[in-house]
Each structure stands twice: as structure tokens, then as C-alpha cells.
Amino acid sequence: MTEISKIIPGGQALGTHEDGRKIFFWNALPGEIVKTYNIAKRKSHYYEAVATEISNPSPYRITPQDNCFLSTSPWQIIKYSQELQFKQDIVVELFREHQIIIPTPEIFTDNCDFHYRNKMEYALYWNHQTNKIELAFHERGSHRKLPISRSSIERPEIFTAAQQIIKDLNSRHEEARKYQSLLLRCNQNGEVSGGLYENHQPHPIFKNLTDQILGYTYSYSPNGFFQINLPVYELALTEIQKHITTDQVLDLYAGVGTIGLSVARDKQLTLVECDKAAFREMEKNIPVTSQNPPLAILSKSEDALNYIAPDQTVILDPPRAGCDQKLTNKLLEIQPETIIYLSCNPATQARDIKNLLPKYQIAEIKTFNFFPRTPHIENLAILKRNH
Q1: Residue 115: what are its φ and ψ, rounded to 5°?
Q2: Residue 50 Cα distances to 79, 111, 143, 232, angstroms
Q3: Fold assignment, 83-113+229-385
């Protein structure tokens, strides 16, 4: 047996094995005692495990909606109000680890904690008893497939379309081993696009979808990069827009352009993106009738340093690895007026901000629950140049 002390930034619960090594648990909460568990990974200094029997259940524990919750959304076991508190606490802890003391950030949510994902990728499982294909997810920490009859975090239109595709495959007596996965995406109007990935075949080109963000229309590929939770993304963009105080705006790691084009298309806007597919989508999203057309640059952000200027607002939305050191060094050298840093990984965000603090101060930090029922956190920091 092991007692759970806290939730760690990765979203797991922390316990201690009898040999002294730490155990990172899924399906356990602070204050609970794990009586039995299955070890998923054994490392030299820690274990990863799934709790299978507990005593002293937490007052924050609830019954998950899905049997596949550990695969898709392991925080289905937590009351939603406590999930929000855990995420606020994790942000504070991650910044403290980098010697940055911040107050508990305000957290934004639309209170829609299920049926919010506009994209889902399913595995295909072959049922040897019925000789039919079933929808599935991979079990967390393994390659085993878990067949499912229900999934509650994607929009219902996606799951309905997925079930119909499986029904069609079974009517043709297809076999699951032919396919790698099934990817589907849905826009805010409920239109679904996507399809099957076949093994050893090029990925097909799916019909583009369109969505409106802050009143502007964007086109995107179902298998390309686009935000998963648009209502909460709009909350973040509204906060970002409040801090666009300069005529020049540089949007780095711009993706298909939804940040810069939503909050600063009336400014002297430069967008930088290195992924060719995303860049092509960005070019389509730039308005052709604009009197002050944005400048789109196909480049790594750390190779576009000459576009940074002092009288400028710089928007950063890097991948989980955070910003390249060359970029943070250049920001310290040029010192643009405002840096707006949106991050899907507050750990690397805190690291980068620590590097910038000699010349900047944190004006605001706000957290957004883009991914309810999961430990994933989206965090926004506004940095102002010291005067």
C-alpha cells in the first residue's frame, strides 16, 4: 500500500514504493491509499503505474464516464472545480521551480468539460469472436488496443461519424489490420471531415473545413494543425488582444495564422511559420483585400530574428519544447515593448521567461482549460519591457 501525497505537474499522483522509489500513479488522488496497482513502466529511479484498488477515496473523486478514460482523459475521476484548482496550483509550482513567484493565476473555462474536442484519432480493433472491427484506443503506456463503445470528450458528430465508418467497413468484411487509424475532425457547425489511414499507403488528402474565430473565417485541413477547443481558444485570443499596444506585431510559431490574424490583422503584422503545410494554410487565410496585407515568412522562428524590432509586440506560441535559446537571446538584445507568450507547456514557458526576466517583468499570467478532463494546461504570460 502507498499513500498519495499530491498531484505532480505531469498529471499523475505521487506515491512511494516500498523500495524507496517514487511511483507516478494514474487513477489516484491526493489523500487516497493505493492498495493494489499495475506497474506500466519500471525506470531506474521511479515507476509508472495505474491504481486498481484504493481506500480512503478522495472527496474530489467522481465516477468516470468512459471505460477508456485512462487512454483519452485520465482526469475524468476528478470533480471539475478541483481539476481547475489543480491546474492553477501546477502553474504556480512550475514557475516556483524556476525561482519565479507568481500569484495563483485566474483560470478561464467555458465550463464545457465533455464533448469539446473537434479532432479525434481512433485505433481499429479486430474482435476475434465476432470477426468484426471495433473502434478502440491504445491503453495508456502500452500498444494494446482497448475496444470502446463510448467516448465522451470529442464532439458527438465525430463519434457518430466514426461509428458509421466502422459499420461500413464491417458490411464490406474489411479487416482491421489493413488500417493504421481513423482520423476525424469537426467544425463548429457540425460538419465532419477526415477518414481512414491505410497501412503502407500515403496519407490521403481530406476535404478542408472552415471555422470562424472572433468573427474571421479560417480554412484548415483535418489532419493539419488547428486548435482543438475553439470556444476556450477565443477566450485566450480575447485576452491576448487586450495587450496589442503597438502598430507592429510579430507572430512567431504562427501555425495557420489564427493568433496574429485574429488579434492584429489591422496592424503591421508579420507571421513566421516553418511547417510548409501550415504555411500554405496560413497564406490561404490571409485576406487578399487587406489595405495593409500581413507579411508571411516561411522560416524557423529562431532563423527570423531580423524581424524583431523594439517598438513591437511579439507573440510566441512555441511547441512543447519552448523557445530556442537564440530567440530568447535576441529578444533580450532588441527588447521589444511587449512579449505575449502562449504555451502548451508551462514548464518550458517558465524556463524561457526566467531567461527574459533581466529585461522584462511579468504583467499578467492567465491559465486556460483547453483540454478538460486531462492534465494538459495552456498558459498565457504577458511580459512588459523594463523602463
Answers
A1: 55, 40
A2: 19, 28, 15, 30
A3: Rossmann fold (3.40.50)
Range name among 137-151, 279-293, 301-315 with the lowest pLDDT average: 279-293
pLDDT digits (tens, 9 = 90+) for 226-265: 999 999 999 999 999 999 999 999 999 999 999 999 999 9
Partners of 218 in the beta sheet? 211
Exposure pattern of 163-187 as b/e (b: 16+ CB <10 Å)? Answer: eebbeebeeeebebeebbebbbbbb
For residue 61, what pLDDT is reported?
A: 98
Domain residue ranges of the chain, discontinuous segments joined by +: 2-61, 83-113+229-385, 119-209
- pLDDT value, residue 346: 98
Q: Quick one: average pLDDT of 136-164?
A: 95
Q: Which pLDDT does position 387 carry in this prediction?
A: 82
Rounded Cα distance between 303 and 259, Å, is 20
Reduced to 3 states (helix: H, G, I; strand: E, B; else coil), residue 22 is strand
Nearest-angstrom CA–CA distance, 325 and 323: 6
CA distances from 72 to 17, 109, 345, 352 (A): 26, 19, 18, 29
| 47 close to 4: Cβ distance less than 8 angstroms | no
pLDDT at 333 over 90: yes
The CATH number of the domain covering residues in 2-61: 2.40.50.140
Query: Rounded CA gap, 87 and 75, in Å?
Result: 11
Contact, 369 vs 324, CB < 8 A?
no
168: which residues sit within 8 A by CB, 6+ positions away? none
